[in-house]
Every structure is written in C-alpha cells, then in structure tokens.
Design brief:
mainly alpha
Length: 128
Amino acid sequence: ATDANGVANLKKQGFASIISFRLPTEDGVAAEEAAIKTAGIKYVHLPLNGAMPDPKVADQFLAAVADKANQPAYIHCGGGGRAAAMWMIKRSLKDGWAVDRAADEANLIAPLNPGLKTFATSYINAHK
C-alpha cells in the first residue's frame, strides 16, 4: 500500500497524511518516503521498535493524529501490530473508549502481540 501506486491511491482517497511506525532500517522505508513526497502527501515518520516501544512515540503519535492538518491520517507499520497498538491508545485516551473495546478494535487491524498490548495498556493507564 505504500509503494508509488499505493501512495497515489491513498491521496485519491483523501488521506492528508501517512503516519508510519516503521524503523528506518526496515525494507522499503526510503522508497516509501520518496513515493510519499512525490505524491505530495504529508509524511509523519515515528519509528517504533515493537520489541522495546518508547512511550515518547505514543506522545508524538497522539499529537500528530490530533493535528487537523494531518486528518484524515493513514497509519501503518510493517505488519500492523505497532499501528494497532497506537490506535488502541488513541481510541482509549482521545475517544474515551474502554481499554477492552479499544483492544478488540485494535486486534481487527492486526493481532496485538502480548508485548505491544501490555505497552498500550500501561501507557493508557499512566495517562488517564
């Protein structure tokens, strides 16, 4: 979805920005960034290490997704788990959803691994 055609399609669908949680070392990240710049869509790169998630990235994501200039935002990562965890945090803290309901929806985006689910739940509890 984030090659040149995919990015152009996202722009056609009306997305104002793409928020990526992929690490700079992941395959295709440089090409993705180039495709996004070519399409003229806003690129918000918030690298998140799924094995050792940094709460600062969640802080930055909540600010980016709340920014009207970025809406609507297409959020993604390599396999979907990091994006799902971030969406769970947003749903709970910004939309007022119960943690279980937010986790259920996140699992529809991508299965949350136990580490990311624990990270998201801990972040939510620390910021309520």
